[in-house]
Amino acid sequence: MADPTASADLLSVVVPVFNEAENLRDLHRELTSCLNATGSAYEILMVDDGSSDGGLAVLEELGQQDPALRVVVFRRNFGQTAALAAGIAHARGNVVITIDADLQNDPADIPRLLEVLRKGADVASGCRARRQDAWLTRKVPSWFANRLISWVTGVSLRDYGCTLKAYRGEVLKDVHLYGEMHRFLPAVVSWRGAKVVEVDVNHRPRTRGVSKYGLGRILRVLLDLVTVKFLGSYASKPIHFFGAFGLAALFAGVVVISILTYMKFARGWSMITSPLLLLSALFVIIGFQSILMGLLAELSMRTYYEAQRKPPYVVRRFINMDGTPCAGSRE
Description:
By secondary structure, the chain is of the alpha/beta class.
């Protein structure tokens, strides 16, 4: 997703913005101060996600004052994932930093993230050490969600929901985000070979504006987690996913019909009146359907890779790929 012509000494800060007009000036001031202190060239990409509170006018004003501020404006509200995806797609730097616009993420933590990248990490993922949010509606669901996501993805992080992160631009290349999948981005790039390091960062209470997060997101996050896990582990071999389930169902069907047959001949049970007959038939049907779904998914994924001319793997580097072939030896 990052620009393939990315500059080798440019920081790109991506900020999704939705109805945060009261915070934009202070956010811009803090970001500018922090980024100037790094000594690196930078750009700030703010993505207006269909704001209706006058925030676009503030962004236009700031853009006239600061040529380093670039703004992407959506026609309507598409969501935080889409806003981050658009910002990353237009980023020109070799390092991409993501941060929320509500001032709860502290821009002063950016140098700490950059230091982690300089030490060899590909992703510096912020972790809100002392989170300033409601306990019942934000902290508790987040605690469970972080552990569930870590278990499902195999990438253990304490805080997937923190937007403040820094990425090497190269690890974001060809990564596509949909739904609510931005929070799983560290796991996605980790599956592609990126080294992810978690960093404790400051978290400030919201003093202006209204939070856009709520319990209603939980269901969407769970569904997207299933999608991410499937795409990450089985995108190139869906038959392994559907086939395993199908074989398990077939096995269960065989076990049930075996038990029913034994009870028929050993104890005289009626196979017709027993509900086990329907249960075994259900398991067998589900098993065959799952295997057939796996085969169809295999055909679809092969068509996808061939149409995109995209291999089902990611290469970090080559060794001797352009060397002189060995001519062999003769006796």
